[in-house]
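INTERNAL AUDIT FORM
Audit reference: QA-55
Scope: verify that the stored structure record matches its stored sequence.
Auditor: D.O.
Record contents follow.
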Amino acid sequence: MTLMLRDLRARIARIEGFSPERKTQACPTGWKAVDTILPGGGLLEGALHEIHSPDPADGAAMGFAARLLGRLQARAPARAVLWASCRADLFAPGLHAAGTDPQRLLIARCRDSEELLFAYEEGLKSKALAAVFGEIGELDFSLSRRLQLAAADTGATLVLLRPARFGAEPSAAITRWRAESCPGGWALTLFRCRNGRPGHWRMSEKLGECR
């Protein structure tokens, strides 16, 4: 790698809230095939990540998010996780089955996008939270960058579920995923990864199996 390219990458990292002096950590997904291609061997903590779904009724994105929620809880046993959403149909038994500790999960019911953004930013500022999860539709680049900087500043991880139609729009998210059901299970695609490469996997109906 040339000196010019290294300098450019360092400048981009600073814009995204990462300095060369900051030690970043990654939370493994638990799927070896996925973690192998992720920089650091897992989902970068203190960063914004997006999971896109083609259909709100498709449970694949929620299943993937629930798995990440449980993994992040396990890495920070003394801290809670916030889930902020306008939906009222979070399925608690499903979250628990994916490894979530319900006693360390805070749920904020929001009325609109403005309240959602407020909950995300305030949650990221809290030292009591390991991560913030939520669902949102439209999110312009400047707002996504503000959320990314807030996450990088405190080290809390932000995971947002979004409709797939927003996947072509620019975002400051460090990773962008697409999860959707398919015969025999579901498919997971990593279509954007900072300092990494894309990937595609087929998941069986047993959440722990990936190929």
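Auditor finding: record pair retrieved intact. Helices lie at 3-15, 32-35, 60-75, 92-97, 113-125, 141-154.
Action required: none
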